[in-house]
Task: inverse folding
């Protein structure tokens, strides 16, 4: 992690950070990669790998020490995310989606709520999810139609959610719903909702292009009764909680894109050294080695943006961290798409065949340009921070 030292700035990781990254890399190499292709083909929910990651301490790393967790900063979670995604982005998301699901409770929950919902995540490999997106409302959260109506000590929730990672296997989901429809996004509130509550129906497991071993589901809420004690923050705090959550998770999501890009680069370099055309390895052809040179530079730039964004969040740099998180998410997601496409090109016809690994990487990469704010939304955030600064 970058730290200020005499004579300049150091990008050297601490011994503990290097050990954590090595642990995640070893797990990705030995446990995830051997299963990745099969799990992708059959859309297998990787329950076995989730359990192993939980046992190794690679899940729920941000749960505070007060609730029995490690309380690790954003930076450490980002290091883990890159390595797991190097193994397989779909499996990685199944494991690290708990970061997204639990973040609203960590960031906005009362001490009583943290004590109720967070320790069970450490005791066994249960999952949680983040219920923001709806069929007609993605980045435009003002269009959310799910409602929460106060009735005494409870709220009654009605609506639907879609594109929710791990929802089909989650113990609970943080659901964002309108408590005051007249206030637009300022009328949004957040609730911890057990997924076995009467009235919740998982309607569909979505069949995706890539990251297929992550369960992505749609679910409905019909007259779902949720205690008022499950509301995070005050009524109307939902939009703020959602944005704080995404600020915190975007460096990790961006690092996942770096992991996929790094895997594509590794495969491309290995193949370019071995494949011979015109009596020389294709690595000797400028048309190929220029592609790989650009990959290397852009991956390293993406990684450094992730490191900077995570460091700024951990240092409490507020809105500047929002800006740099969007820098990282936009650049890393687009880099992953370009690097995997170029890796397919390096492999030529073999790159288009499922027998070779880069075909899957290209499919996996696309989703990084879409979820947790598309690359276009990241540009919108960046432009607003440039032209409408609020500091």
Result:
């Amino acid at each position: 992690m970058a730290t200020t030292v005499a004579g300049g700035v150091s990008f050297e990781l601490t011994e503990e950070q290097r050990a954590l990254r090595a642990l995640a890399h070893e797990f990705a190499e030995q446990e995830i990669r051997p299963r990745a292709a099969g799990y992708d083909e059959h859309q297998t929910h990787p329950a076995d790998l989730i359990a192993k990651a939980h046992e190794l301490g690679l899940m729920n790393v941000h749960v505070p020490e007060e609730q029995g967790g490690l309380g690790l900063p954003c930076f450490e979670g980002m290091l883990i995310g890159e390595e797991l995604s190097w193994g397989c982005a779909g499996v990685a998301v199944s494991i690290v989606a708990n970061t997204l699901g639990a973040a609203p409770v960590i960031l906005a929950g009362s001490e009583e709520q943290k004590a109720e919902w967070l320790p069970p995540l450490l005791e066994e490999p249960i999952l949680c999810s983040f219920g923001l997106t709806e069929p007609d409302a993605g980045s435009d959260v003002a269009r959310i139609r799910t409602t929460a109506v106060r009735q005494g000590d409870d709220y009654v929730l009605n609506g639907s959610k879609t594109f929710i990672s791990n929802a089909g296997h989650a113990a609970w989901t943080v659901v964002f719903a309108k408590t005051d429809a007249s206030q637009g996004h300022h009328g949004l509130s957040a609730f911890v909702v057990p997924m076995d509550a009467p009235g919740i129906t998982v309607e569909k497991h979505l069949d995706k292009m890539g990251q297929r071993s992550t369960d992505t589901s749609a679910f409905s809420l019909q007259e779902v009764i949720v205690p008022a004690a499950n509301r995070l923050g005050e009524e109307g705090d939902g939009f703020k909680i959602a944005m704080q959550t995404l600020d915190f998770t975007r460096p990790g999501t961006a690092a996942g894109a770096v992991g996929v890009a790094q895997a594509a680069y590794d495969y491309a370099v290995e193949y370019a050294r071995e494949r011979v055309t015109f009596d020389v390895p294709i690595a000797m052809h400028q048309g190929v080695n220029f592609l790989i040179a650009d990959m290397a530079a852009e991956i390293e730039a993406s990684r450094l943006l992730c490191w900077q964004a995570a460091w700024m969040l951990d240092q409490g740099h507020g809105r500047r961290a929002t800006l740099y998180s969007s820098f990282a998410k936009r650049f890393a997601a687009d880099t992953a798409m370009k690097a995997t496409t170029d890796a397919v090109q390096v492999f030529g016809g073999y790159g288009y065949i499922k027998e070779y690994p880069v075909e899957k990487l290209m499919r996996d990469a696309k989703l990084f340009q879409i979820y947790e704010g598309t690359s276009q939304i990241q540009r919108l955030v960046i432009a607003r921070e440039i032209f409408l600064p609020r500091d």
User: Anything to note?
Assistant: The chain has a mean pLDDT of 94. The chain has eleven helices and twelve strands.
